[in-house]
Design goal:
The chain is an alpha/beta fold and 245 residues long. The chain is 43% helix and 14% strand.
């Protein structure tokens, strides 16, 4: 654990070379490779966009400096996440990219539940079983910092109450409700400069027909307000890169 960051920094610069060269070799502190053709090679040229998972300001800044996109879980409200987004966006202005192009992207993962009946969405979300899922994350991913409010196993984090969900919707941390209520929560994330939200209806007790309803409704009635560019940003970044011979 003490050398993971150093190990990562050694290898992350090597991926581009592995993808480009038919005879790649490396003799570093943490790994050595004799001359080899590293397979598979990327299908798209020069290569897919590069990302790193992040959760603290230092990693957000490092990602920006290296021209990497950032993938993270929501750390609370858009207001709380804004500081991390700002750190990244400032660092990426002068990026020295580890790949052939800068992937200027912040992608945040969170949950949602969108139904025609916003009151029904609150009801389902307040008994979703998501508290058990969160409890398992803290139990099995033991490198995660464990806040004081997380109970000791086998006690479980309770599902949010309707009141907590409504308060979360008002500050953007809960994307739950009808079409307009979900869209209003998304606008708060859009305001702080997040490039992408990776959303899933996170609940272990939701029936299949509820999943179909929420995904179709969200896709048809919410996403079009925000997804207005027919070309994805990473396609533009890749198109501007110099393709190796």
């Amino acid at each position: 654990m003490a050398t993971t960051k150093e190990t990562w920094e050694e290898v992350v610069w090597e991926f581009k070379k592995m993808w480009e060269s038919r005879e790649y070799s490396f003799d570093g502190k943490f790994f050595q490779t004799p001359p080899r053709n590293i397979l598979p090679k990327p299908w798209v040229k020069p290569h897919p966009p590069m990302w790193v998972a992040a959760g603290n300001p230092g990693t957000f800044e490092k990602a920006g400096k290296m021209g990497l996109g950032v993938l993270c879980f929501t750390g609370g409200t858009p207001e709380k996440m804004k500081a991390l987004v700002d750190v990244y966006k400032e660092a990426i202005k002068d990026a020295d990219p580890v790949g052939e192009f800068v992937n200027d992207n912040v992608a945040i993962t969170t949950s949602f539940l969108c139904l025609e009946d916003g009151d029904a969405a609150l009801d389902w979300a307040s008994r979703s079983g998501n508290g058990r899922q969160q409890s398992l994350v803290f139990r099995y991913l033991d490198t995660f910092p464990k806040p004081a409010w997380v109970p000791e196993w086998p006690a479980l984090i309770p599902d949010p109450t309707r009141e907590q969900l409504i308060a979360g919707r008002e500050n953007g941390s809960a994307i739950v409700g009808n079409v307009e209520e979900c869209a209003e929560a998304l606008r708060k994330w859009d305001t702080i400069g997040v490039d992408q939200l990776i959303l899933g209806p996170s609940g272990s007790v939701y029936p299949h027909d509820l999943m179909v309803e929420t995904v179709e409704l969200f896709g048809n009635s919410v996403i079009p307000e925000f997804d207005t560019d027919p070309e994805f940003s990473t396609d533009r970044y890749r198109a501007s890169a110099k393709v190796p011979a």
